[in-house]
Amino acid sequence: MKITFLTVGKTEDAYLKEGIDKYVKRLKHYTKLELVEIPELKNTKALSPEQQKAKEAELILKKITPLDFVILMDEKGSEFTSTQFAAYINKKEVTTSANLIFIIGGPYGFDTSVYQRANDKISLSRMTFSHQMVRLFFVEQLYRAYTIMKGEPYHHE
């Protein structure tokens, strides 16, 4: 199984890039992880948030195949403890042959068409974080999940 982490826009802050790179490198020991960045839209001042989400949706949906299991990082999604998230990932590895695609949308979230295509939604917290920071939080939690599944001493309860 391959995991794809699809994001709208680049990670701009050096400290976030450094943290993301750290966990992506660590994850190579556990799974095939691909980071895919969809370029941010240009000239968005003339677009409403709904128009922007629709244009982002076109780009997102082009990166997904019908066989992929799509999980949106969404504030209204299911919340897990780190141990529960590890069990979720483990179950997906065992029960699905599809690639897992985790998606972080743009600043306004997702268009209806992306919600309709999604198989699941996950929230990292009830709090709102910048979509830049969520990237780091997600890859750290994915790394933590794999160390939990392997019984390694990274996570403490």
UniProtKB/TrEMBL annotation:
Binding site for S-adenosyl-L-methionine: 105, 124-129
GO MF annotation, one: rRNA (pseudouridine-N3-)-methyltransferase activity
Keywords: Cytoplasm, Methyltransferase, rRNA processing, S-adenosyl-L-methionine, Transferase
SUPFAM superfamilies listed in its UniProt record: alpha/beta knot
Localization per record: Cytoplasm
Pfam families referenced in this protein's UniProt entry, alphabetically: SPOUT_MTase
Catalytic reactions of this protein: pseudouridine(1915) in 23S rRNA + S-adenosyl-L-methionine = N(3)-methylpseudouridine(1915) in 23S rRNA + S-adenosyl-L-homocysteine + H(+)
Principal location class: cytoplasm
One cellular-component annotation, GO: cytoplasm
Family, as annotated: Belongs to the RNA methyltransferase RlmH family.
Summary of the function given for this chain in its UniProt record: Specifically methylates the pseudouridine at position 1915 (m3Psi1915) in 23S rRNA.
Protein name: Ribosomal RNA large subunit methyltransferase H
Gene: rlmH
